[in-house]
Amino acid sequence: MFRYVLKRIGLMFLSFIIIMTACFFLVKMLPLVVNATLGQDAEIAEAQIVARGYRDPILVQYVAYIRRIITQWDWGVGVNMPEYVGQGVWGVFIEKLPPTVLINAYSTLFAVPLGILLGVYAALKKNSWQDHAVSTLVMVLVSAPSYVTAFLVQYLLCFKLGWLPLTMGAGTEYFTWETFRSMLPAVFSLSFGSIAGYARFTRAELTEVLTGEYLLLARAKGLTRRQCVTRHALRNAMVPVFPSVIAEFIAVMSGSLIIEKIFAVPGVGRLYLTAITSLDYDFFMMLSAFYTFIGLVAGIVVDISYGFIDPRIRVGEK
Q: What whole-number distance in Å separates Cα of residue 277 and Cα of residue 260?
């Protein structure tokens, strides 16, 4: 198992290096133009470009870029976004990270229990009207993109009913009630797709487990249906579900880009989209590295967690 983990981690870093190298060369093929609307900041941006050798050949830039990251943890500076001209990319990223982490953590805490409960309920009521109702709701939520549900949340909860603010509140006091309340529209929008995914996955796994021969044997030996479900079926059905919960929390951060833009969340997703539209290449590279790393880690966490949650996988590997 230890050798397998090391191999997967090595392949993950190799994939990360290949992806980021391709991103670097592709983005450096684009012309580096300073935003003409910056005014006096344009001189600062141009000075940063010249000082960091951004006009040098691409291969020279690549070697210098990697060297700065390894030796100084320097991911570059902003040159095209007015509010970040001359500022270090890493510092801005750390400043913008808490809102992104919080809305994704809140959405996971909201989606996991509700999705699993719906899935368990639908499996126990298989082929009944309750099962059909849950399955229809899941199908609708899975089919609707997150930005569609985001607009519905804005229209119903924020505009028509007035229960929640349209956008996230400003400031860095992230653990106050007002800030938490302003996060809820984004949290709900992110949660709906996850709830549907957990419900569908849990229902499928539990339905399969409930038809297993060992449960029929347990019932024949005198266990009640409740005892079979709670002692055996749920525990076995959760083996493939729990790794997906861990991966979902990691992977959902890469899906909050549009949601952060819609609800004006001052996080890294909104910063990423702004960097792309502003052609701020250092911000683009830093945030591309962040989201690429998240995607790769989500995949490896699923594979490794199976071995720790289900001992049969470790025995088979040996």
A: 15
Q: What is the DSSP letter of 85?
A: B
CB 16 within 8 A of CB 69: no
Which residue reads 């099962």 in tokens? 131
Report the distance separating Cα 218 and Cα 159, nearest Å: 54
Tell me, what amino acid is at 199?
A
Alpha-carbon span 287 to 283, nearest angstrom: 6
Q: Is 164 helix (H, G, I), strand (E, B) or coil?
A: coil
- Cβ atoms of 299 and 247 within 8 Å: the answer is yes
User: For the segment 56-107, what is each residue's pLDDT rounded down to a tens digit?
Assistant: 888 988 999 999 999 989 898 888 888 888 788 999 999 888 888 888 888 8
> Which residue blocks in 29-82 are alpha helix, DSSP H?
41-51, 58-72
pLDDT beneath 50, residues of the chain: 315-318
Q: Alpha-carbon distance 122 to 311, whole Å?
A: 28
* Distance between first and last Cα of the chain: 7
Q: Distance of CA 66 to CAs 60, 130, 285, 292, 318, Å?
A: 10, 56, 12, 17, 39
Q: What is the helix (H) or strand (E) element at residue 172, kind and residue range?
A: none
In which residue are the tokens 């030996």 written?
221
